[in-house]
Amino acid sequence: MIVALIAAQSENRVIGKGLDIPWKVKGEQALFKKITTGGTLIMGRKTYDSIGRPLPGRTTIVVSRNPELVLDGCEVCTSLDAAIKRAFQIGAPIFIAGGGELYRQGLDLADEIHLTTIHTNVDGDIFFPEVPDAFVAVSEEKYQSNIDYTYRLFRKRGEENAI
Ligand SMILES: NC(=O)c1ccc[n+]([C@@H]2O[C@H](COP(=O)([O-])OP(=O)(O)OC[C@H]3O[C@@H](n4cnc5c(N)ncnc54)[C@H](OP(=O)(O)O)[C@@H]3O)[C@@H](O)[C@H]2O)c1
User: Fold this and answer.
1) The pTM of the whole model exceeds 0.90
2) CA of 16 to the centre of ligand 1 (A)
3) What is the DSSP string of 57-114?
4) Which residue's alpha carbon is nearest to atom 34 within ligand 1?
5) Which of 97, 98, 100, 160 has the least C-beta neighbours within 10 A?
6) Atom of ligand 1 nearest to the CA of 21
7) How much distance in Å is there from the Cα of 103 to the middle of ligand 1?
8) pLDDT digits over 85-137, tens only?
9) Atom 22 in ligand 1: which residue has the minimum CA distance?
10) Using an 8 Å Cβ cutoff, are 47 and 74 in contact?
């Protein structure tokens, strides 16, 4: 089973400012929904707080170091490893959906990265890590919107056709 990261970044690799995503781009969230529906989302507690609810059509696993955290409609795990193990048990496609802390830890575990680049530079304080050389872009789709954006799928080098 594949573990994927899914993120949207600006040209200067910003993914967030405080708890917010500092842009509104028509169509970009629909793309996220299309890719992730039916799957399991693993997200950090701060990202969950910024969304405020489980997203429909997907299982949400929230990662927190707080063993007492209970969230309606979500599963909670106290480590990323535990969250991934649980997601494997569920058996649906696995998406690590942010934020910055989870992406940094998830990069080593990921087989794929769904990365949308919003073609603007914005001010922010949470960044997507540089995509390591171990990954190669296997597809690219360009979209025109109020801010244009490009979606790329990266796979581990050597596994481009294996999945
Ligand atoms: N542009 C995008 O695609 C995108 C996607 C998602 C999020 N975002 C943005 O990213 C920002 C949030 O990112 P962030 O880096 O501040 O926080 P985050 O990664 O969403 O969450 C961090 C929290 O996750 C928990 N955590 C992290 N690693 C853990 C581990 N190994 N074991 C157990 N718990 C762990 C901790 O929760 P506790 O403090 O509860 O212990 C930690 O405080 C927001 O601005 C959000 O809007 C952007």
Assistant:
1) yes
2) 10
3) TSEEEEE-S-TT---TT-EEESSHHHHHHHHHHH-S-EEE---HHHHHHHGGG-SEEE
4) 64
5) 160
6) 47
7) 8
8) 999 999 999 999 999 999 999 999 999 999 999 999 999 999 999 999 999 99
9) 44
10) no
